[in-house]
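[PROTEIN RECORD]
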Amino acid sequence: MRRLILIVHSSFDGFVAGRNGEFDNFIGDEENLEFVCSLTDNADNALFGRITYQLLDGDWPTAANKPNATKNEIKYSNWYNKVPKIVLSKTLQISNKKNTTVISENIAHEINKIKNQPGKDILIFGSPTTVHSLIEEN
């Protein structure tokens, strides 16, 4: 069975964002990205909640094309573009978006179906609400 690997940035007191949803204390430096890229070597799916998906999808599809893109920005951008992305959301509507599937109901059943398919790890990026939902579903 494939593993779900969680990547969450949080403060020591367990918060992911500020009171108003701000995410300005996150340090997205090269060392952090190098660690994430080491996890992508053994993963072939990405799982997100809606907010995290929309945040990452606004930048990563084209990050490798930026003039000063680092080695790890290029590596992560290329990985992001090729792997299937699974988004857990009751509100997001996506049509014809390459490699992206939205799951809005029967979450545990659908995730278990994916976990039981052959493949590598599934990385969960951020998405604290999604993580809580998955924990509740065991």
Observations:
- The CA atoms of residues 15 and 21 lie 10 Å apart.
- The domain at 4-136 is CATH 3.40.430.10 (Dihydrofolate Reductase, subunit A).
